[in-house]
Amino acid sequence: MLKATAASIIGYQLAGDAATLNASLTDEKIRNRYQQSHIAVIGAGGFGGWTALSLLRKGAKVTLLDTWGPGNARASSGCERRMIHSQLYAVGSTGSNKEVYRPLYMDMITRALQLWREHEKRWNRQLYFPCGSLTLQPEDAQDGREALAYMRERGTAVEELSLRDLERRYPQINLEGVSWGLLDVDSGYLRSRLACQELFRGFLEEGGEYRQVSVKAPEIDGSGLDSLSLSDGSRLSADQYIFACGPWLGQLFPGTIRIRPSRAEAFFFGTPVDDHRYDDQHLPICIDGTRSPSAAVIPDGDFRGLLVEGGPPRVRIIDPTTEERIPTTDLLAFHREYLALRFPGMKDAPLLSMRVCQYENSDDRNFVIDRHPAAENVWLIGGGSGHGFKHAPVIGEWAAEMVFQERAVEPLFGLQRFTRGLA
Ligand SMILES: Cc1cc2nc3c(=O)[nH]c(=O)nc-3n(C[C@H](O)[C@H](O)[C@H](O)COP(=O)(O)OP(=O)(O)OC[C@H]3O[C@@H](n4cnc5c(N)ncnc54)[C@H](O)[C@@H]3O)c2cc1C
To answer: Tell me: the pLDDT tens digits for 159-169?
Structure first.
């Protein structure tokens, strides 16, 4: 852990040193370095889309490639809503090494939220819905207490709600088994699929190029990569290649990165006529810390219904290309039952639609943003692990800086952590 902490700090210092160094270069040299580069970004999900846009803004020529398009129905970013909240990190639930990852993620969220807000204005489309995020806490909530203290210490906007507060504010929730609530105030959800499309539109408007084509797994032979082999029989040559292929990343680079695409299901239930208690003006995101297995509920704001996801953890590794996206009967039954218990007014709510998606878990559930160990012009970006979407603008920003050597690879997101035991 000490090693990782030190490495992390060094990572930041190097980034700072690089910035100072760059300031001493002439503007023209900097411009040339960027403008002479052609960069191929493979994958137009949240990670690839934001990386492509960030590189473009540095002056590079960027070609974005995707097999099925930005936010497509197979992609992890292709679902309707993704949460942006910090309590997950305040609890430290992204695996081991909490003390080093926790502040890193909290800082990332602050920057990510700023970038989401700036861009929804720029693109004139609401993408971030600031409804807050409420965790229902049991009496012996050690994690909840720790998260509350940590968020307060950092100055994150957080409220501790008593049972009485909860009853008064959210009469639509049945509070059985709940002792208090932690409200993460500056949080909410992002319209993820729509965000990918707006991001894509922004990328094209700013001069990016796009090809809808599949990239074959590259053969890395120890030197740099010369070109990509594409599914339409052509080849594409660039200076640098960034692979942001979500759940497919492990298939493209077996032996270099392990990504486990595991199946997940999300259900949208219809709210009663004239009953607005389940929209994002009246209900925050609800995460149930009192039950196991549990579920998370995201209120309606895009007219698709109340979203319920989570349920009993079952790891079924899938092929995201061929997986049939049919709901599992017992998971549907679990979510229906859960909804009826916590939100009695939704007891007989009809299922309106559902999504089968997949997590793209790295071995320690933390991200990967690193150069390929055997090809210096190839970068791997992924391992969103069920919490990556919100961070995509920051990941894109960092990736672009790393590619241009303005920022050192963050060891906590580096590939070496899996072999050096940093994870
Ligand atoms: C049920 C569920 C709930 C989640 N909840 C949250 C949440 O609340 N908050 C949050 O922040 N995150 C959440 N996540 C995680 C988040 O969705 C992902 O981490 C994030 O969307 C990953 O984005 P990505 O760009 O890496 O991958 P993707 O969105 O999958 O994009 C990868 C892209 O690469 C393309 N591609 C792949 N291979 C090739 C190839 N060979 N050639 C060309 N193109 C290729 C694909 O077509 C795809 O468009 C959740 C995930 C799941 C499954």
So the answer is: 999 999 999 99
Instruction: Indicate whether residue 389 lines ligand 1 (CB < 6 A).
Output: yes
- Average pLDDT score over residue span 133-147: 93
Who's near 330: CB < 8 A, 6+ residues apart?
A: none
**Tokens read off for 212:** 């809808």
Residue 383 resides in a domain: yes
Show the domain range for 21.
Answer: 2-78+193-259+364-420
Q: If we measure between CA atoms, which residue out of 94, 118, 90 comes closest to residue 106? A: 90
Are 222 and 292 members of one domain?
no
Q: How many domains does the chain have?
A: 2
Look at strands 133-137 and 285-288 and give their pairing. Answer: parallel
Assigned domain for 297 exists: yes
The response to whether residue 75 sits with its C-beta less than 6 Å from ligand 1 reads yes
Based on the domain organization, do 201 and 325 belong to the same domain?
A: no
Strand-pair partners of 65? 42, 211
Nearest CA, atom 20, ligand 1: 389
Q: Are residue 202 and residue 270 in the same domain, yes or no? A: no
Residues 356 and 386 in one domain: no
Residues 310, 331, single domain; the answer is yes
Residues 343 and 232 in one domain: no
Which residue stretches of 123-264 are H helix? 142-154, 163-169, 192-205, 249-252
d(CA 332, CA 311): 9
pLDDT of residue 8: 33
Q: Is residue 283 part of a domain?
A: yes
Q: Which atom of ligand 1 is nearest to the CA of 357?
A: 53
3 state DSSP class of 45: coil
Residue 357 Cβ inside 6 Å of ligand 1? The answer reads: yes
Per the CB < 8 A criterion, the answer to whether 243 and 249 are in contact is yes
- Residue that has been written with the tokens 């072999």 in this structure: 419
Average per-residue pLDDT for the chain: 91
Q: Is the pTM of this model over 0.85?
A: yes
* Cβ proximity of 389 and 50 under 8 Å: no
- What percentage of the chain's residues is helix, strand, coil (to nearest 5)? 35, 25, 40
